[in-house]
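Exercise 7. Given the encoded structure of a 447-residue chain, write a plausible sequence.
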C-alpha cells in the first residue's frame, strides 16, 4: 500500500526550521505530498500524481518524485484523504481507486490505464486517489475532486455508483464516468463496463479441460458480493467449463470483499480443501493462484495482465483500460462524448485472456491441455475479437439453471438488461438471478 509521509517536528526542530525559513530556506510540506521537482526524470514524468490517505506513514519514491508538466497547487485534504490539484492549461483527469494502485489486480489495471492515457494524450494531466472505501468517504472524495476543477473523473468500483450520481448532479459541467454498475443520467454521468463474461467463458473452457485431464471434475468460484455482475461472471465461467467438461461442477464461496488479501487466501483455501482442482476469483489479488501453488492445484487470477505469475496459475481474464480511457478522454475534451451506457466487447481491445493475446505464451498448465481444446479457445477468441461472437452469444439458449429449469430457450439470447439486473421489474426478461447448470450453490438472498 502506497502512503504519504508525515514529518513530525519537535519544538527544537520547528524553531530551527523557522530560522532557516527566515534565511531563505524552504520548510518541507506535510500532509502526504511533496513538492514536484523542477526537472523530473523520464521515469518520474510518466507517473500520475497520487493522492493518498492523510493518515499514511511511508512515502514511496515514485509518488514523491511525481511531477506534472504544468504547475499545480498543493493538494488539499478531505477527511483522511489528500485531494490532488489540477494543472493549469491541461485537460485534467482524476480517478479514485478502491485499493492500492499496485494491488496486483483491479486497481492496478485501472492505474495502468491512467498511465496509458497520460502517455498517449500529451495535453492531459492525470491524478488518482487510492484506498477509497465505498460509501460516504467516496462521495466526499468525488465532490472534492470536482471542486478542484477536474474535467473528467473516473470512479472505479461498483459501490461508487450512487455517490458519483449524486455529485454529478451538483457539477453539470464536469463529466463523471462510473465503472461497473448500471446507472446514468445521460448527461454528465455515464456508466462504463466491458464484456468480461466473454473472457470468463474462455477461462472456464480451459479450467474444465484442466480438471478433466486431472481426473477431478470439481472446481471453485471465489465470489465477492451478491450482485448481478458476480452471478453473470460465475455463470459465464460455468457455461465455458461445461463445454469442455460436461460432468464438471462448480462450488461458490462468498467472501464479501473486493480487496482483502487475507480473506481471499482463506476463501481460496476453503475451496481447495473442499476438493476443488481449479479455483477462479472475482476479487482483486492473485490469491487463487498463490494458494493453488501451495496446494499443488490450479488457480485463475483476474483483472490485471501481470497477475498470473506462479507456475500453478492457468490464465487470467484481464482488463486493458488504457485505450478505452484515452478514447473517452479525447472525446470528452472534443465535446463529442455522450455519457450513457458504454459497454464494450472484446473487439474493442479492452479485454484480454493471459497466454492467448499477441506476444504471450500459454502457461505450462494450459500448454499441457489437448490441442483441440486450445484450438477451440483460440478460434472462439478470434471470433470475439472480430465482433462475430459477443457477450450475448455467451448466453445464447438453450440454457438451464442448476435446478434443471430452462432459463433461456433455444434461439434466444440474453440482452443487456438481463446481464445487469436481478428483477424483472427493472426491465429485464430473463434477468441474472439464477445459477447455471453445474453450479453447486444457492441463490443469494436479495434485500
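Solution.
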Amino acid at each position: 500500500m502506497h502512503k504519504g509521509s508525515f514529518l513530525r517536528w519537535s519544538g527544537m526542530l520547528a524553531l530551527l526550521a523557522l530560522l532557516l525559513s527566515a534565511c531563505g530556506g524552504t520548510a518541507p510540506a506535510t500532509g502526504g505530498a511533496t513538492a514536484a521537482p523542477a526537472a523530473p526524470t523520464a521515469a518520474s514524468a510518466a507517473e500520475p500524481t497520487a493522492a493518498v490517505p492523510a493518515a499514511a506513514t511511508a512515502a514511496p519514491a515514485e509518488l514523491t518524485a511525481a511531477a506534472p508538466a504544468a504547475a499545480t497547487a498543493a493538494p488539499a485534504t478531505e477527511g483522511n484523504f489528500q485531494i490532488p490539484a489540477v494543472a493549469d492549461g491541461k485537460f485534467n483527469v482524476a480517478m479514485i481507486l478502491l485499493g492500492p494502485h499496485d494491488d496486483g489486480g483491479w486497481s492496478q489495471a485501472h492505474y495502468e490505464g491512467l498511465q496509458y492515457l497520460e502517455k498517449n494524450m500529451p495535453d492531459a494531466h492525470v491524478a488518482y486517489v487510492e484506498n477509497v472505501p465505498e460509501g460516504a468517504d467516496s462521495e466526499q472524495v468525488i465532490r472534492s475532486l470536482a471542486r478542484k476543477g477536474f474535467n473528467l473523473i473516473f470512479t472505479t468500483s461498483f459501490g461508487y455508483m450512487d455517490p458519483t450520481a449524486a455529485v454529478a448532479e451538483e457539477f453539470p459541467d464536469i463529466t463523471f464516468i462510473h465503472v461497473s454498475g448500471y446507472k446514468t443520467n445521460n448527461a454528465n454521468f455515464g456508466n462504463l463496463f466491458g464484456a468480461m463474461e466473454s473472457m470468463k467463458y474462455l477461462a472456464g473452457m480451459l479450467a474444465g479441460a484442466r480438471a478433466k485431464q486431472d481426473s477431478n471434475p470439481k472446481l471453485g468460484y471465489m465470489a465477492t458480493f451478491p450482485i448481478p455482475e458476480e452471478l453473470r461472471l460465475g455463470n459465464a465461467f460455468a457455461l465455458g467449463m461445461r463445454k469442455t467438461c460436461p460432468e464438471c461442477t462448480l462450488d461458490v464461496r462468498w467472501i464479501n470483499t473486493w480487496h482483502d488479501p487475507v480473506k481471499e487466501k482463506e476463501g481460496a483455501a476453503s475451496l481447495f480443501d473442499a476438493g476443488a482442482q481449479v479455483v477462479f476469483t472475482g476479487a482483486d489479488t492473485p490469491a487463487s493462484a498463490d494458494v493453488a501453488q501451495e496446494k499443488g492445484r490450479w488457480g485463475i487470477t483476474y483483472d490485471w495482465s501481470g497477475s498470473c505469475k506462479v507456475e500453478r496459475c492457468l490464465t487470467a481474464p484481464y482488463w486493458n483500460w488504457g485505450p478505452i480511457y484515452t478514447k473517452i478522454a479525447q472525446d470528452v475534451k472534443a465535446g463529442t462524448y455522450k455519457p450513457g451506457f458504454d459497454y464494450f466487447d472484446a473487439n474493442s481491445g479492452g479485454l484480454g485472456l493471459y497466454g492467448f493475446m499477441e506476444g504471450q505464451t500459454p502457461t505450462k498448465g494450459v500448454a499441457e491441455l489437448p490441442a483441440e481444446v486450445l484450438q477451440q479457445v483460440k478460434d472462439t477468441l478470434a471470433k470475439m475479437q472480430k465482433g462475430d461472437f459477443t457477450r450475448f452469444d455467451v448466453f445464447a439458449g438453450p440454457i438451464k439453471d442448476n435446478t434443471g429449469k430452462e432459463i433461456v430457450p433455444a434461439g434466444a439470447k440474453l440482452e443487456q438488461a438481463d446481464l445487469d439486473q436481478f428483477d424483472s421489474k427493472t426491465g429485464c426478461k430473463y434477468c441474472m438471478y439464477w445459477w447455471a447448470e453445474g453450479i453447486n450453490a444457492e441463490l443469494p438472498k436479495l434485500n
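Remark. The radius of gyration is 23 Å. Students should compare their own answers with the one above.
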